[in-house]
Amino acid sequence: MSGHAGEVEAVRRFRERTGLPGLIDVHTHFMPERVLRKVWAYFDAAGPLIGREWPISYRQEEDERVALLRAFGVRAYTSMLYPHKPGMAEWLNGWAAGFAARTPDCLRTATLFPEDGVEAYVREAVEGGAGEGSAGVGGARIFKSHLQVGAYDPNDERLDRVWGLLAEAAVPVVMHCGSGPAPGKYTGPEPVGRLLARHPRLRLIVAHLGMPEYVDFLDLAERYAEVRLDTTMADFSESLAPFPGEARARLADLGDRILLGTDFPNIPYPYVHQLEVLERLGLGDAWLRAVCYENGARLFGIADAQGEGPGDPDRGV
């Protein structure tokens, strides 16, 4: 932890000057070690989807990464994982249930894939089953869907009852559905628009603000009251996929449905960078408090009071 003392202090100062009791990060990655190592190897090789050097900032062991998030004051976070072929999702869900059981700061996370049996294992995750050592942790609080990596259509008929189940249970789904960093066969606003037309109550969280189709996904958020967007990797000062300046006012208008996301630990910069990027938008401290804490606290029913226990901002500092 000592090697990150400066970063911890920088995040603490951000929380202090904006009046934040803590942070809620809806887009962090924890996954089985061998899977994570393959993800890191892909980034190390500057895989075809990224096409650039991408040094992983937080390559520590799992327990050290957990301690670092606590030191940053992150009260709740996720274990985003995603399958790229049939037969992976149920196994990943079991691992994530166990991770949430031993890591109370983490919102139990699950995933899915269009395959035979998907409705059964999604229902089991929602109802709190599956996962070694997961007794008492409760059902999945959030799901991850990655249309780019999984290369599947969200309108696949095998998923239709699953989306209905998740909408009925009011379990949010973080979906990588924008066409950045490279388009996929089923990315973009059109497939998602068709999905929402059938399931308008689905609590969909559009990852990366829908990069690069920001405006189209903002349109969907304005049309559907349960659509939210996370800020993951949305660095508006970079040229890779610049956020249109004229759309910033819409971020303010939708301030109750924008959520902090960072992609920790798979980021090529310090954790505080994402916070400073949001601060530089100039939308005010009240907006920052909503995005970085209050919206997530409301969505997941997290108590606002400070005190002892998992997620306390000063734990581990």
UniProtKB/TrEMBL annotation:
This is Amidohydrolase. It comes from Streptomyces scopuliridis.
